[in-house]
Design brief:
The chain is of the alpha/beta class and about 280 residues long. It folds into two domains: about 80 residues, no CATH class; about 190 residues, 3-Layer(aba) Sandwich (Rossmann fold), CATH 3.40.50. The strands form two sheets. The protein has a seven-stranded mixed beta sheet. A three-stranded antiparallel beta sheet has the order 3-5-4. The radius of gyration is 21 Å and the shape is globular. The mean pLDDT is about 90.
């Protein structure tokens, strides 16, 4: 067999690009989830992982499976959405939340927090534990939004196997926790769930960052895991959405620091630890 020529490699790349565009359009038309403005390199990496798992060689074959096989569609969409977090898995984020939350919540009559494109129940539970320990949860509303109905069902029914609680306690301690994480949970058989007194402050909803409008004003917005997947135009659209949704002197937490050249930068003061930004206007 002869070597692959540069021309053939270029043709193969063009075909794969066409396949990718057709797959993204199919997912949008069939299921309503719009990944067409996401970063192409990240999409390819995630989709190739699904293809390897399912023994598929081309994106066209994955498109065929996703359109006709509910299990393949679910696996494809799950791979493209924000992956689930575990309790206190982001040590820096948890420490910064302990440091920053009081400054933007204590002065508000009814503090609200938005976890946009939340990475599942355990990210929201982490925040609830931090706020409870800082004495801030009692009057605070946490709005956790996810991109799909499937993610919403998983968040509402979430629980942690008891054999994971030791690892969760260690992560909690690394993130500045000084007590016993288990005191914030109740045991249900071989699983642990967040105590009702904390869970009652979390409101879950399905929400699409690509298409939906601002739905409230928030003192703190965190979107720490989704933005790297967005292309430049979509990222700009989402930043404007957050700008419209953030209260004066509220704090915005992003995956990456806003750049000085960003037109929204003038509305934020980089006084908070990066990548957290405080709105001053």
């Amino acid at each position: 067999m002869g070597a692959v020529t540069p021309l053939r490699r270029e043709a193969a790349a063009e075909v794969e690009e066409l396949e990718l565009e057709l797959l993204l359009e199919a997912l949008f038309q069939r299921y309503g989830y719009d990944f067409r403005s996401h970063e192409r390199a990240l999409l390819r990496r995630k989709l190739r992982g699904v293809m390897r798992t399912r023994g598929l060689r081309t994106l066209s074959s994955l498109q065929d499976r996703a359109l006709h096989d509910p299990a393949a569609a679910s696996a494809t969409l799950r791979a493209l959405h924000v992956p689930p977090a575990t309790l206190f898995d982001d040590t820096d984020e948890a420490r910064q939340l302990r440091q920053l939350a009081g400054g933007c919540l204590r002065g508000a009559a009814l503090p609200r927090i938005w976890l946009a494109d939340c990475a599942g129940a355990e990210q929201a539970w982490t925040l609830a534990v931090i706020l409870a320990e800082e004495g801030l949860l009692e009057h605070t509303e946490i709005h956790a939004t996810v991109a799909s109905d499937e993610q919403l069902e998983e968040a509402l029914d979430a629980a942690i196997p008891l054999d994971r609680m030791a690892a969760a306690q260690a992560a909690y301690a690394r993130a500045g926790g000084a007590g016993q994480l288990a005191s914030h949970f109740q045991v249900d058989g071989k699983r642990a769930v967040l105590a009702p007194a904390l869970r009652s402050h979390i409101t879950w909803a399905q929400y699409n960052l690509v298409t939906d409008a601002s739905f409230n004003e928030f003192n703190l917005i965190a979107c720490r895991r989704a933005l790297p997947d967005f292309g430049p135009l979509l990222r700009q659209r989402v930043l404007h959405l957050f700008h419209e949704s953030l209260a004066p002197f509220g704090i915005l937490g992003l995956d990456r620091p806003l750049q000085q050249s960003d037109p929204l930068w003038g509305s934020y003061a980089p006084a908070a630890p990066a990548p957290w930004h405080r709105r001053i206007a």
